[in-house]
Amino acid sequence: MEKPKVLITRQLPDEILDSYRDRLEFDVWEDEHTPIPESMLKEKSRKVDGMLTMLTDPIDESLIRNSQNLKIVANLAVGYDNVDVHAAKKHGVAVTNTPDVLTETTADLTFGLLLSSARRIVEAQKYIEEGKWEHWSPLLLAGKEVHHKTIGIFGMGRIGEAVARRAKGFGMQILYHNRSRKTEAEETLGASYVSFDELLNQSDFVLSMAPLTEDTYHIFNKAAFEKMKSDAIFINTSRGKTMDEKALFDAVKSGVIAGAGLDVFENEPIDPSHPLLGLDQVVCLPHIGSASIETRHRMMELCLDNIVRCFEGKKLLTPVQ
Ligand code: DGY
User: Fold this and answer.
1) For ligand 1, is residue 99 a contact (CB within 6 Å)?
2) CB 137: neighbour CB atoms within 10 A?
3) Chain-wide mean pLDDT for the chain?
4) What sequence ranges are listed for the domain D-isomer specific 2-hydroxyacid dehydrogenase catalytic (predicted)?
5) Which of 18, 63, 106, 318 has a CA-to-CA distance to 232 between 20 and 30 Å?
């Protein structure tokens, strides 16, 4: 019997792919760093039964409509805002994502970004590299304390809760805002549910941990930053479009808030000349939230397991609809 043909839109390690070659035939875009051009993506998707996609691939209605044999899109991310899931449903194409396997790793990075921003770690490294360190001095690169401060988590999903567990270890007061109450987190972590405005004006660290939807687009805007404490730090490891980058730049530049730690941007990759990168109080990372080798391998395997199960007529492990 012919094996289902699967387009993989980025080069993945052979050690992962090899264990699936007996069940799937791959057409791999052999580039590890550059996304497949959109025209090529559309052309290739017409000839395959399944796709393993990246968050950089726009999977829109026209692609889905024109891909007659397509049965599944397995997206290598927990977020799936790059996929038109309604169109997929309409055309009978399954969509899967990679929750759970990346939760703790993304929470680690989020907390690392919070610590780096508060304690000026990146700025301190630059300080040494630029040959500025001549003496120890009492307030040299003195930053903000993290322990026992108040963390405000917007989006208390799996990753939000994992960040809250880390915050508990730092003796922090945990506030959260979410579509629904998380009673277990309230009981086990002592997290308190607050309104969005209360989250903004009571937190020392405000974290965007929510997926990008119509409701969360630019929810962190000028008005939101103005409600935050002037010594607060904003952290975003979910999606760049939850924040208005221009408003964030203005807020940090003018001292409306103290700083930011960002792993995601409105347009990725961020241009190296972007004004946000010129601010010492802003730590910027290239969307590496879940990027540990073990986690990325687990994400790849989860995508491939979903694809195999789809063609074997089995229940998908992590469907998004
Ligand atoms: C996700 O999974 O959505 C992250 O942004 C990438 O790991």
Assistant:
1) no
2) 9
3) 97
4) 6-320
5) 106
Candidate from 290, 292, 320 with most ligand 1 atoms within 8 A of CB, to mutate: 290
Within 10 A of 23 (CB to CB), how many other CB atoms are there? Answer: 14
Q: Does the reported pTM lie above 0.80?
A: yes
Substitution site in 106, 241, 299 for ligand 1 pocket (most atoms within 8 Å of beta carbon): 106
Domains of the chain: 5-101+293-311 (3.40.50.720), 103-284 (3.40.50.720)
Q: Are 56 and 82 in contact (CB under 8 A)?
A: yes
Q: Quick one: tokens of 70?
A: 């397509």
Instruction: Give the pLDDT of residue 160.
Output: 98
Residues 214-236 have a mean pLDDT of: 98
Query: Ligand 1 within 6 A of 79 CB?
Result: yes
Where residue 109 falls among pLDDT bands split at 50, 70, 90?
Answer: very high
Q: What is the pLDDT of residue 55?
A: 97
Please give the structure tokens belonging to residue 67. Answer: 């891909």
Sheet with 5-8: list strands edge to edge.
25-28, 5-8, 50-53, 72-75, 94-96
ipTM above 0.90, yes or no: yes
Closest CA to 211 of 159, 259, 152, 176: 159
CA distance 309 to 181: 34
Closest CA to 238 of 219, 267, 263: 263
Using an 8 Å Cβ cutoff, are 156 and 178 in contact?
yes
Q: Output Rg (C-alpha) for the chain, integer angstroms.
A: 21
Judge if the beta carbon of residue 102 lies within 6 A of ligand 1: yes
